[in-house]
User: Which sequence fits this backbone?
C-alpha cells in the first residue's frame, strides 16, 4: 500500500472509498417502520408462557418437590425408592401382626421391660444377649 | 449468562439487546435496528446493486433475527456476524432466482459482486481501474478488502465475519494489497 507506483494505489483507494461513501444507501424510514412492525409481531405472536425461560436452564421441579430441591431425576428416583421401601415395610409389619411384636427383642424393646444384661460390661451388646 | 458472553475483550452488546428483546423489551428492537440495519442494507446493496432489493433483503434478514431471538445462544456467534452471513445467503438466493433457467448444479456460487457496484459508481478512471482489479482478486481476499476499506472493520471483526483467525485475515489483506500493487505496477509500466 505504501509503495509508490506511477499509478497511485493509495490515491485510487481513497477515491473509491469516497465514491462509495457518497453513494451508499441509508435505510429508509419506511424500512425501519417495517422492521419494527415485524419485531412487534414476532414478540406478540411468539411468546408463550415458557418462551421467556432461558433455553439452557434446568427444568423446574413441580409442586412440593421444588421445596426439597428435588429438581433432577436421580433425586426424584431416590425419594420414590425410599417411599416404596417404607410402604413395603409397613405392609410386611401389618401382615405379620402381633406375632412379629411377640418376638423377644420387640417385647423387651417396646414392652417397657428393661433388658437384662449379663453384667455391666455387656451394656453395648445387651440387645444381642436379649435376643 | 452475562459471564458466558464475556469473551476477554469482546462483549457482544447486540446479544444483550437481543436477549432483552426476547424477554419482551421492545425498545431493544429499536436499538438493534438502529445499530444493525444500516450495515445490512449496505452489504445487500453492494452484492445486489439495487437499493430496493437491498431493502427487501434487509427486512427479511432482520425478521430472521427477531425469530431467532428466543433461541439465541449467547457466546456461539456475534449477532452482527450471524446477520452478515444470513444477509449474504439471502443475496445469493436472490441472484440464483434471477437466473431461473440456469442449471443450479453447474452454477458456481456467485462471487460477492461488490466491485461491480463500486465500478459503476467510481467517479475517476483510477478508482474504476481499482474496482476492476478488486474484482479480479480471489473471493476471500476480496471480501476481506471490502470489509476493511468500505465497512471500516478491524482485523478481529473481519476474522469473525469470515470465520477465520486474525493472522489469516492479516495474510489475506497483505496478499490482496501485494496483488493489487503488482497489477497497478504493470499498468504503470504499460
Assistant:
Amino acid at each position: 500500500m505504501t509503495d509508490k507506483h506511477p499509478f497511485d494505489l493509495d490515491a485510487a483507494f481513497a477515491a473509491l472509498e469516497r465514491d462509495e461513501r457518497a453513494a451508499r444507501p441509508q435505510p429508509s424510514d419506511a424500512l425501519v417502520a417495517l422492521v419494527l412492525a415485524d419485531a412487534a409481531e414476532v414478540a406478540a405472536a411468539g411468546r408463550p408462557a415458557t418462551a421467556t425461560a432461558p433455553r439452557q436452564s434446568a427444568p423446574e421441579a413441580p409442586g412440593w418437590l421444588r421445596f426439597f430441591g428435588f429438581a433432577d431425576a436421580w433425586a426424584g428416583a431416590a425419594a420414590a425408592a425410599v417411599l416404596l421401601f417404607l410402604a413395603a415395610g409397613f405392609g410386611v409389619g401389618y401382615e405379620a401382626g402381633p406375632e412379629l411384636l411377640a418376638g423377644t427383642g420387640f417385647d423387651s424393646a417396646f414392652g417397657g421391660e428393661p433388658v437384662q444384661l449379663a453384667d455391666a460390661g455387656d451394656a453395648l451388646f445387651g440387645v444381642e444377649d436379649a435376643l | 449468562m452475562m459471564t458466558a458472553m464475556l469473551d476477554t475483550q469482546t462483549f457482544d452488546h447486540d446479544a444483550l439487546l437481543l436477549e432483552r428483546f426476547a424477554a419482551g423489551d421492545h425498545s431493544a428492537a429499536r436499538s438493534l435496528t438502529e445499530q444493525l440495519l444500516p450495515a445490512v442494507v449496505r452489504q445487500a446493496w453492494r452484492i445486489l446493486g439495487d437499493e430496493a432489493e437491498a431493502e427487501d433483503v434487509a427486512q427479511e434478514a432482520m425478521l430472521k433475527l427477531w425469530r431467532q431471538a428466543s433461541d439465541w445462544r449467547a457466546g456461539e456467534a456475534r449477532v452482527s456476524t450471524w446477520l452478515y452471513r444470513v444477509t449474504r445467503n439471502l443475496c445469493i438466493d436472490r441472484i440464483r432466482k434471477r437466473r431461473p433457467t440456469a442449471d443450479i448444479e453447474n452454477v458456481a456460487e456467485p462471487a460477492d459482486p461488490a466491485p461491480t457496484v463500486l465500478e459503476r459508481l467510481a467517479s475517476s478512471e483510477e478508482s474504476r481501474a481499482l474496482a476492476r482489479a478488486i474484482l479480479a482478486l480471489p473471493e476471500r481476499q476480496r471480501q476481506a478488502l471490502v470489509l476493511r476499506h468500505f465497512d471500516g472493520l478491524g482485523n478481529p471483526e473481519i476474522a469473525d465475519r469470515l470465520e477465520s483467525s486474525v493472522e489469516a485475515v492479516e495474510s489475506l489483506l497483505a496478499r490482496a494489497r501485494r496483488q493489487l500493487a503488482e497489477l497497478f505496477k504493470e499498468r504503470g509500466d504499460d
